[in-house]
Every structure is written in C-alpha cells, then in structure tokens.
Amino acid sequence: MLGQMMNRPLLISMIARHALKWHGRREIVSITADQPRHRYTYAEAFARAKKLSNVLVKAGMGRGDRIATLAWNDFRHFEIYYGVSCAGFVCHTINPRLFEDQIVYIVNHAEDRWLFLDPAFVPLIEKVQERLKKVERYVVLTDDAHMPATTLPNAVSYEALIANESAQCEWPEFDENTASSLCYTSGTTGDPKGVMYSHRSTVLHSLGSALPDAEDLSNNDTVLAVVPMFHVNAWGLPYTGPMVGAKLVFPGPKMGDPEALCDLIENEGVNFAAAVPTVWQGMVAYLEKSGKRPGKLQRVLSGGSAVPVALMDQLRDKYGVEVMHAWGMTENSPIGSVCSFSPEANALPREQRDALRAKQGRCVFGVEMKIVDDNDDELPHDGKAFGALKIRGPWVASSYYKREDSTAFDANGWFGTGDVATIDPLGYMQITDRTKDVIKSGGEWISSIELENLAVSHPAVAQAAVISVAHPKWQERPLLIVVPKPNQSVTREELLSFYVGKVAKWWIPDDVVFVDKLPLTATGKLSKLQLRQQFKDYRLPESQ
Ligand code: ADP
Predict the structure, then answer these.
(1) Could you tell me if 353 and 321 are in contact, meaning their C-beta atoms sit under 8 angstroms apart?
(2) pTM across the whole model
(3) Rounded to an integer, what distance in angstroms lies between the CA atom of residue 478 and that of residue 506?
(4) For the residues of 320-340, what is the DSSP string, one character each?
(5) How far apart are CA 49 and CA 161, in angstroms?
C-alpha cells in the first residue's frame, strides 16, 4: 500500500518560489567588479533569474543542456544558479583557479553550450577559446558600460542580454531527479571528475544542512558565503539561504581580502560565514594587526581541510566567534558531518570538550557513514580503529559524469571517500588522512593530519605539512615541513621534542625542513602531491 500524500517534486524552483513569496524583502548584498556594494532583494533576484530563463529558452536550450559559469560569488552568479536550473538546464560552475588545460578539458567534457564569465576571466578564456569546441556564446557578467573589449565570438554583456526580456515565467515542473548542476572535483591526480547534482539531491541537501546540529540557519541569520560558488555550490548556501530566508552577502572578487570581508561583516551585520581555514587564518592575522573586531560574527563554518584547534581557540577566546568544523566533499554536495555538541559531549570536562573540536564531527541526517578495513568489514566506533570512510545517501553521487571507470562506488551502493577516519564512542568522526597521504610505517598507519595539527599549535609555526618519505627499514617515515611565523625562530629539535608525550613515540617525524611557503591546489588546499614530488629524493638522517 502506498501512502496518500502529494507527490510534489523536490525542485530548486520550489526554494525560489518559497523565498519569493515569503522572504521577498530579504536582501542579497554583493561586491562585484563593476559595483562596490550592490544591494537588492530576493524578489528582484528571482525576477531577473526568470528573465534569464526566458532568454535561454528562446535561445533553444534543451532540458539538461549545460551552461557554464566562471565567476566569483555575486548576485549575477546567484541569478544564473536559478535562471539555469529552474528552467531545466544544468548550471556548470567552473573553478577559475584551475590550470588552463583543466578548464579546457572540463568545458569540452561537459559540452557546455554557453559560458558566463566575469570580466576578469576574459583574457584567460580568449587564450583558450579556439579549443572550446561546443561553446556558442560568451556572456560577460557586467553591463555595457563596463564591457571589456574582447575577441570572444558572439560576446554580450549580461545586463544587455536580459535587459529587454520579460520577468514573467512559470518555471516548468519535471522529474525531481533531473540534473540541476555540475561541479568537477579538482583532480589532483588524473582528469577532473564531474559530479552531476539533481534537483532532489540539492533540495534535500539544503534541508539537511540547515538543521540545528548542522549549520543551524534561519530567517534571522545574515550569511557571508566566502566559499566560492564554483566550489561545490558554495557548500549549498545559495540554496539554503533562500530556503530559510537568510540575508545573503557575497564578497565577489574580494574573497581573499580580509579587510573587505571584515568590512562586509561589520556593515552588513553578518553573523554566520563559511570558508576554508586559510581564510580564517588571514582574517585573524588582519584583526590582530588592525585591532578591529569582527562585528556581530558568531559562527563560522569551516571545512575543506582540517581546522587547527589553535585557530579555533583564537577566534573564540579573543573574538567570540565559534568555529563549526565540518567535513564534506564535492561528491557529497558537500555537507557530511559537523562538529556540534551532543549532551554527552557537553558534559565532558572543558579540556576534552575543546579537544573534540579538532574532529570533523557527527554525521548529518541524510548521510550514512561507516569506516571499514581492507576487507570492507565495518570497524568499531572506539576512536582508535582507522578505516576507509564510506558514505551513502540521497545527496551522495552514485557515479561520475560520463565516466564508468571509477572504483570509488562499490557494489553495495556505498561511495569510498578516499579519506581515512576514526569514529569515537560519542559518534565523532575524525579524518586522519587521505588514503593517498597516510604514512605507512612498518605496516602501521600514522596520521599526517594529526601531526600537522600539533605542529601548528606550536607558537612559532605558521603552517605545517607532514608527508611520507621512503625509509629502508620502515618503508615510510614522516617528514615535517614547516613555514615559521615571521620574525620567529624555532629549531628542528624544539619542534621534534614538542611532539613528545602528545603522540606515540614512533609517530614523531624523523626530520624537519623549513620552507618559505607550501604549495597549494586550485581549491587552496595543501598540495601533498607536489610536496611529495619536491621531496621525493629526500633522505632522512638515519638512512643517510
Ligand atoms: P577537492 O579537494 O578535490 O577540491 P573537495 O573539495 O571535494 O575536493 O575535497 C574533499 C576532501 O577534502 C575530503 O575528502 C577530505 O579529504 C578533505 N576535507 C574536507 N573537509 C575536511 C575537514 N574538515 N578536515 C580534513 N579534511 C577535510
């Protein structure tokens, strides 16, 4: 017997319709290249998104056609999210920090028909335009007055494109499993892999991530989305924001500028912000230097890589800002776990409670999670057993776009994340490594992330990376690579003895190298691949 409830499809247009009707006066504030502070309402945003839908329909786009963006976070990008997906097309966001060849590969692989790009990226695309096989039209995200001279064929400014279009548009209803947006993982090895989200996965992910023990978002929040809209849909905030009726603030090209971010936080009343840890590191350095305070900021969601506890302490103790440490990935839309406190965790002594924040937290409703050994047998939640982290759920990818060769999806319907983790008796998951970064010393695993976290808690250390290097007896041993803080000095011996009593003796790195900076990937994460290449011939003192 079936239930007798309405089978209304979960479509992104449902979020837009709700926001339009019930939160129409809430604001979206952006910095763009052509406007230092653009401000309008959800009602205006969705009216313009409808104009764009009409343009695309008239241009002959078909259901599922891919339309690409190469853009920072701002109101026009937001309109494209809705104008494209709600009309039944696929919004394909591209990371402009990728290498040229990767961008060419991605655009061709996705067979993008139109490309919307910020003026800043016009020179980049002009260089590769002849290799972009299927792109018919280039839309520059500005108005005619700011339109750069360009050799891109058939180029038009976004404002001119939608200017004379009607804002009357009934977004169509279709199967909720229809593709809505596409995002490629940065692909540190091999070609980037595309994750094709659906309307259903997007709506469910927004619901799940808004929950109190996840992002805890509501109509009363003002959300600053620093995490790029080309990086897993800004962790879903352009959907969750309108769903709950939060005010949205977009930093445009200023996402890496702590002064501009602080200005937005203060003047727009931002109380919630989301970004990778390096943004918070930059922010704290700016606050320390300028003596400013971060306005009404209360909570920051930080993920993408492990957040050092020292950084969380600084934000909380000095600035009253609580860091919500989260774990996720492109294949998971991305939110999987958030480090929120359960009653048992709240009852712990303060020191243990504080230490818990280094963990990536508890599973969000909607995601199932397990750690398994090499035989795919589930490991206990004892906080000690390391295993491959697997997930499944309605917002987890079931395959990669136009790629059948992936071994990450198992026969039982689980996705192997490529992360190695522990889960403790209170249910707190902790990433100890990427499978490819884990250090295997004499057959036992050493967590590079734990060693890095400890290193950055040393007062003289700005950044740290731990990689494996070959060892004749133990196969692999950890090497600590450190960027010292400016005007601070610290020795190899001091750093190595800093580990004593904090980790097992055999975990302590065999050597320390001091460098000026660490290599980063296109998404701003530490590139261990590059480091391993750089230090591939490194010989540890014992093995010389
Ligand atoms: P890419 O790094 O390829 O751009 P993602 O943004 O999808 O792709 O990255 C997902 C990976 O980032 C996860 O599998 C995990 O290794 C890492 N990651 C995400 N959040 C955290 C976190 N809070 N702590 C440690 N690692 C994290």
Answers:
(1) no
(2) 0.91
(3) 10
(4) --EEEEEEE-GGGSSEEEE-P
(5) 12
Kindly report the three-state secondary structure assignment for every residue of 469-510. EEECCCEEEEEEEEEECCCCCCCHHHHHHHCECCECHHHCCC
SS (H, E, C) 140-164: ECCCHHHCCCCCCCCEEEHHHHHHC
Alpha helices (H) in 111-236, listed in sequence order: 122-128, 158-163, 199-210, 232-235
Annotated active-site residue 185? The verdict is: yes
Tens digit of each residue's pLDDT (9 = 90 or more) over 333-388: 999 999 999 999 999 999 999 989 999 999 999 999 999 998 999 999 999 998 99
Catalytic residue among 27, 445, 476, 485: 445
State the pLDDT confidence band at 523, using cuts at 50, 70 and 90.
Answer: confident
Strand order, beta sheet including 387-392: 368-372, 387-392, 415-423, 429-434
Find where tokens 């198992």 sit. Answer: 410
CA distances from 311 to 258, 318, 393, 467 (A): 15, 11, 32, 22
pLDDT of the residue at 526: 85
Whole-angstrom Cα distance, residue 506 to residue 534? 24
Dig out the tokens for 257 from the structure.
Answer: 């500028």
Q: Which two structure tokens, joined as six digits, stand for 355?
A: 């230490």
Residue 414 designated active-site: no
* Residue 334 CA: distances (Å) to CA of 70, 102, 237, 317, 463: 20, 22, 11, 29, 25
H/E element, 391 = strand 387-392
pLDDT score at 544: 39
Helices 237-244/75-85 angle, 10° precision = 90
The pLDDT of residue 305 is 86
Respond yes or no: is residue 440 known to be catalytic. yes
Question: Is the distance from the beta carbon of residue 97 to the nearest atom of ligand 1 less than 6 Å?
Answer: no
**According to the model, what pLDDT value does residue 188 have?**
56
**Which among 80, 91, 70, 72 has a CA at the least distance from the CA of 32?**
72
Is there an atom of ligand 1 within 6 Å of 305 CB? yes
Which of these, 233, 240, 215, 243, lies nearest to 302 by C-alpha position?
215
